[in-house]
Amino acid sequence: MAPVPSEQINAFLSNPNLRDAILAVNRPEGGPQLTPVWFIWDGEAFWFSIRNHSAKYRYMQRDQDISVLVDEPATARYMLVYGRAEFLDENLRAHPVLRSMLEKYNVSNEEMEAGLDELSRPERVLVRLRPEKMVARLG
């Protein structure tokens, strides 16, 4: 498959109709754990907000190799990304990706502060995935 131009990737991943990504993490007993997650693409990396007591977080702590699938069923377009999870757990409220995520998922201005509070609670962590390999069907 030919490399996909970055402008085509950005256009696909910035589509507000792409609601969730499927996050795949490696379970210790074999086979992936698949979970739909809210995501933001910032042009260089995927971002997810998860709870630090979830199974997927524990699995990622053990094995940072993860995969993400974003698809658009109506057009059969998709992007599959492989890379390593990076974790941020300090000063989350100040991180601009949280506001972007809430805006993407149509959180109203009246609910924005409560949403930021929720996503920056001590049991939350931001996960960044910088793609090491991408497979896509965007044409």
Summarize the helices and strands and which ones pair or pack.
Layout: H1 6-13, E1 20-26, E2 32-38, E3 40-41, E4 46-51, H2 55-62, E5 65-72, E6 77-88, H3 96-104, H4 109-119, E7 124-137
Description:
The protein is built from four helices and seven strands. By secondary structure, it is of the alpha+beta class. The protein is globular, with a radius of gyration of 15 Å. It has a seven-stranded antiparallel β-sheet with strand order 2-1-5-6-7-4-3. It has one domain (6-133): Electron Transport, Fmn-binding Protein, Chain A (Pnp Oxidase, Chain A, Roll).
Give the helix level as a range of percent. 25-40%
Strand content: 35-45%
- Please summarize the sheet with the most strands: 7 strands, antiparallel
Radius of gyration: 15 Å
> Structural class of the secondary structure composition?
alpha+beta
- CATH class, named Mainly Beta
Number of helices: 4
Number of spatially distinct domains: 1
Biggest sheet: strands side by side, in what order?
Answer: 2-1-5-6-7-4-3
Low-confidence stretches: none
Give the CATH superfamily.
Electron Transport, Fmn-binding Protein, Chain A
Give the end-to-end Cα distance, rounded to a whole number of Å: 11 Å
